[in-house]
Automatic annotation (TrEMBL):
Highest taxon of source: Eukaryota
Signal peptide from the UniProt entry: none
Protein name (record): Cms1 ribosomal small subunit homolog
Pfam short name (any one): CMS1
Organism: Cairina moschata
Region (Disordered): 52-124
Record's compositionally biased regions (Basic and acidic residues): 56-73
Cellular component aspect of the GO annotation: 90S preribosome; nucleus
Gene3D superfamilies: P-loop containing nucleotide triphosphate hydrolases
Length: 309
């Protein structure tokens, strides 16, 4: 980039102080003094602009009459021509601010693309409970909340349907179903991440359940008072629902767990975002709260068995 500076008038000139600094002085047509300092000097050509030249003074007629014939003609004084000087300006350096790169969080889908999903095992739930209670409980309390391997049923190896898995872990289901006659309780509890998933599992267990009664234990379109009334009036063998609603029913004495023998966690199923039930923070918290308040104690006593489907 260049800046063009033009000075008109007499005695316009450039005096070089240093190799980097130039002072331009000039006297305008009205006698004003112009001075521009601290400009970066450059080796630039001086361009003559004839249009801006001042008119050279001509002798008047009166002086020509009185002029001595032997005298020599007056020498015309040439005044310095205005010049144009192109001064280069230093380019501003654009400082590129280097921003630190943010690490991208790994998505579950990216992890699953690189490795095949592994079926859940009892050790996964044990580690989850120990991590959750590790910083909040004392050593004695953690021991009371620890589940041994004897508390678990065989886990699903991802080759079973829901009906075939239930038949494997509960071969004497027909006998248990006939002997169960208590109200406000179920023989088997199935914990899911959502109401839609609960409906899917209820449909998929038709070959297993036979003529037993299944109760929907989730909050979608069903009030908790309606579920409490149904448990008080009738006998149900299987309850399928979300951990939050089941925990609320237990706390309000609408559901009793004394007759419960099996509790199945829908552990391996993934939703549209490829999340398991324990990958969803709300479901994880509600499930752990349900285990802590009621299920772990019954499992340690041996009355309830846990299964990971």
């Amino acid at each position: 980039r260049h800046s063009v500076v033009t000075f008109h008038g007499v005695n316009a000139g450039i005096s070089y102080l240093t190799s980097q600094t130039v002072i331009i002085r000039g006297i305008g047509s009205l006698g004003q003094k112009h001075e521009l300092t601290s400009l970066t000097a450059c080796n630039c050509p001086l361009v003559h602009d004839p249009s801006d030249d001042e008119t050279i003074e001509k002798p008047s007629d009166k002086t020509a009459i009185h002029q001595d014939p032997d005298s020599k003609p007056a020498v015309k004084k040439k005044r310095k021509q205005p010049t144009e000087c192109f001064l280069s300006q230093p380019e501003e350096k654009q400082e590129s601010a280097v921003k630190p790169k943010k690490r991208k969080k790994k998505k579950i889908s990216d992890v699953l693309e690189k490795s095949s999903p592994k079926p859940g095992v009892p050790e996964d739930l044990q580690n989850l409970l120990s991590q959750h209670f590790g910083a909040r409980r004392s050593v004695i309390e953690i021991e009371e909340l620890t589940l041994s391997d004897s508390c678990f049923l065989p886990a699903n190896d991802l080759t079973h349907s829901f009906s075939s898995y239930l038949k494997e872990i509960c071969p004497k289901w027909a006998k248990l179903r006939k002997n169960h006659k208590e109200k406000k309780s179920v023989v088997m509890l199935v914990i899911c991440s959502s109401a839609l998933r609960s409906l899917e599992l209820i449909k998929s267990m038709t070959t297993f359940k036979g003529d037993c009664r299944v109760l929907k234990l989730f909050a979608k379109h069903i009030k908790i008072k309606e579920q409490i009334n149904m448990l008080e009036k009738g006998v149900f063998h299987i309850g399928v629902g979300t951990p939050g609603r089941i925990k609320a029913l237990v706390e309000q004495d609408g559901l009793c767990l004394n007759s419960t023998k099996y509790m199945i966690l829908d552990w391996n199923w993934r939703d549209q975002k490829l999340r398991r039930m324990m990958d969803i923070p709300e479901i994880k918290k509600e499930t752990i709260d349900l285990l802590e308040t009621s299920i772990i104690k019954l499992c340690r006593e041996g009355s309830v068995k846990l299964g990971l489907f």
